[in-house]
Amino acid sequence: QSALTQPASVSASPGQSITISCTGTSSDVGSYNLVSWYQQHPGKAPKLMIYEGSKRPSGISNRFSGSKSGNTASLTISGLQAEDEGDYYCCSYAGSGSVVFGGGTKLTVL
Amino acid sequence: QLQLQESGPGLVKPSETLSLTCTVSGGSISSSDYFWGWIRQPPGKGLEWIGSIYFSGTTFYNPSLKSRVTISVDTSKNQFSLKLTSVTAADTAVYYCARQLSGFRWYFDLWGRGTLVTVSS
User: Fold this and answer.
1) Residues ≥6 apart with Cβ < 8 Å to A58
2) To 10 degrees, the CA torsion angle through B49, B46, A30, B103?
């Protein structure tokens, strides 16, 4: 299994919206609605932000939303805030009990 | 509140075996709702799933690491463990343990703080 493809970096100003893409194949992202997204701040463990494509865990702001089209999943953050800055990783079920992560995207809030 | 804590040597010599344990506190590792997984992150790089285990002992491994990885569970101690054989410098990483939802959900909802393992002579 190959890592999912994410842009290396995205940036935007506070208040704006960004979308991070996560491209896989018909064997992972395209076959299942089981993409999750994680936020990671420097030196910290990843934190679950979106699961099953578009669901938010309790306590996660509704500024975070997820979607999927074909082999590509997307994470959208609206109304950017300074604390949203960090690294974001997508993860998809890939069959036979395995999961695969994306390479990660560094979000900079200008 | 359930917590996970990784423990083990921070330095391993090349060609030797990396061994880590994750202790689950505040809840039972024997819950049918969860798998228990290991994920690693080389310095400055992305996340890589290593493998996961169910309390019954059923395991799933990353195909790229399968030949070198063994994950086991000790329900009496509420712990699960990782062994990675024949390590090289490329195995230097922060190793995380995490709780993974079962029931065909597969996401990681709770993570340990991680432990840095360096492979060096």
Assistant:
1) none
2) 30
Q: Which residues contact B1 (CB under 8 A, 6 or more apart)?
A: B26
Task: Look up tokens 């391993």; give the residue.
Answer: B12
pLDDT tens-digit series, residues A17-50: 999 999 999 999 999 999 999 999 999 999 999 9
Contact A89, A102 (CB under 8 A): yes
Write out chain B residues lying below 8 Å of A96, CB-based. Answer: 60
Alpha-carbon gap, residue B64 to B70, rounded angstroms: 13
| Contact (CB<8Å) B62/A104 | no
**Structural tokens at position B84:** 């990675």
Phi, psi angles (nearest 5°) of residue B89: -60, -30
B63: nearest CB among A1, A51, A93: A1
Q: Say what the pLDDT of residue B103 is.
A: 86
Q: At residue A13, what are phi and psi to the nearest 5 degrees?
A: -90, 160
Residue in chain B closest to A51 (alpha carbons) equals B107
